[in-house]
Amino acid sequence: MRFPVPLNAVVAHRWHCDHFGHLNARHYAAAFDDATFVFWSGLGFRPDSDSPMPVTLEVKISFRQEIPAGSVVRIEAQVSKVGNKSVGLTFTMREAGGDELAICEVVEVFIHPKSRRSCPIPAALRAALSKESHSPPG
């Protein structure tokens, strides 16, 4: 996978907008959450009941510009850090012209589904993530 990778498009419907007429914060969160699932799927990750899986530990959204009703925007992902048990991802929401509308920084930690405890990132997945990350594995 080549980064930044385009993930999905979002339509700002009128019912997604607040009293100022722009996309409400709750819908940014949903769009970025969906993008996280699209990201892992694009890497070939398929969760099962016995394999470590990523779960969201932290989310920080920075709003750059308002998104009015009727806008169609896209989200792309970049790996920002790969650790032993966690991954930092940066999602950028852009308009068609390329302007940044919002940035979402996410920390995903891997857990074992049965123990519910953190565990190392599976080796093959870690290698794929490290290959494109902006920081050395650690």
Care to describe what's here?
The protein has 138 residues and is an alpha+beta fold. It has a single domain (5-131), classed as Hotdog Thioesterase (Thiol Ester Dehydrase, Chain A, Roll). Helix content is 20%, strand content 36%. It is built from two helices and five strands. A five-stranded antiparallel beta sheet has the order 1-3-4-5-2. Strand 4 (86-94) and strand 5 (100-111) form a beta hairpin. The chain is elongated, with a radius of gyration of 16 Å.
What's the arrangement of secondary structure elements?
Elements: E1 5-11, H1 25-42, E2 53-63, E3 72-82, E4 86-94, E5 100-111, H2 123-132
Antiparallel strand pairs: 1-3, 2-5, 3-4, 4-5
Features:
Thiol Ester Dehydrase, Chain A; 138 residues; 2 helices; 20% helix; 36% strand; alpha+beta
The coarse silhouette is elongated
Number of helices: 2
The ordered string of helix (H) and strand (E) elements is EHEEEEH
Which CATH-level-2 architecture?
Roll
CATH class: Alpha Beta
The main sheet comes to: 5 strands, antiparallel
Q: Estimate the strand proportion.
A: 35-45%
| Integer count of domains | 1
CATH T-level topology: Thiol Ester Dehydrase, Chain A
Determine the CATH superfamily.
Answer: Hotdog Thioesterase
Oligomer: single chain
Rg (C-alpha, Å):
16 Å
How many E strands? 5
Mean pLDDT: 89
What level of helicity do the residues show? 10-25%
Secondary structure class reads alpha+beta
pLDDT < 50 stretches: none
State the end-to-end CA separation: 21 Å
Cross-sheet strand order for the largest sheet: 1-3-4-5-2
InterPro entries: HotDog_dom_sf (IPR029069)
Protein name: (3S)-malyl-CoA thioesterase
Pfam families: 4HBT_2
